[in-house]
Amino acid sequence: MRALFLYNIQAGRGRAEVTATEVCSLFRLQGHEITAQPIDFHINPFEGNEQLDLMIVAGGDGTMNYVTNCMKRKGLNMRLAVLPSGTANDFAGAIGMSKKPLEAAQQILDGAVEHIDCGCVNGLHFVNVFSFGLFTTTSQRTPDERKHKMGKFAYLIEGIKELRTMHAVPMHVRTESDEFDFRALMVLVFNGETAGGFHLARRSCIKDGLFDCILLEKKNFFSSVFAMGHYLLGGHPKSVKHLRARTLEITSTVDEPTDVDGQQGAHFPLHIECLAGELQMVCPPQK
41's torsion region: left (phi>0), alpha (psi -120 to 50) or beta? Predict the structure, then answer.
């Protein structure tokens, strides 16, 4: 097997290069040809690597998002693996990867390829979640230094600041089975199960060909905050609309900023589609 270990030098609290050396040694001990390469976000990592058997991505959801979109732009469908090295590692968690680098590397060596769903919004792919509204651009604005020191709680602190500017996004939503108007405070379209390490998508599965969608309706300040807290604690507040869909068409009178896997997202109007089994991911062996 010929593999490339692609790592984000900013991820993993500065241990990326040490991890790369350890992981590559483990692969070579088991007879595999592997090269380590730091990721350059200005260069397509598949350029010149089109014949690889496996691309191993060490980083968080943002790194995985970048690699996935680079692969799609090259028209490739290569086998991928992820070694969680970011802040929340939501996508890696959804497929069952260990948070310990060498354990995750062994899971890749022992694992099997599974076909995993991938989201796509206006031609931009996402592996975990697409979102807009309150809290959803928090990851983009949270400084990397704070992420490294505080982990997922850095997102929570940054997100609380947004409560001062909470506003409604008027929108029209059409799915393959429903159509409605909604004044949204926040919209989350999950392919995975968690966002920023918080478990929000209660019925999501990355292999069912459907999104798990959460829409929080704008009420007054206290009602909205209470509804968010109630939902996080496992409740079912009336102002939270929950639906499952394969496609969504969303239009609005405003072009609200959006987010894909913690990165800058697409512009309105939005065409969002779940691409069933689109990614070939090496997943841990079944227990």
Answer: alpha
Place of tokens 């009420």: 219
What is the predicted pLDDT for the residue at 228? 76
pLDDT of residue 133: 87
pLDDT number for residue 152: 52
**Prediction pTM value:** 0.89
Q: What is the pLDDT of residue 13?
A: 62
Say how many CA atoms lie within 13 Å of 49 toward its Cβ. 26
Kindly report, residue by residue over 123-138, the tens digit of the pLDDT: 999 999 999 987 775 5
Instruction: Write out residues in the chain with pLDDT < 50, as ranges.
Output: 148, 150
C-alpha span between 112 and 280 (Å, rounded): 10
- Cα–Cα distance, 67 to 92 (Å, whole number): 14
Can you read off the two tokens belonging to residue 93?
A: 């968690």
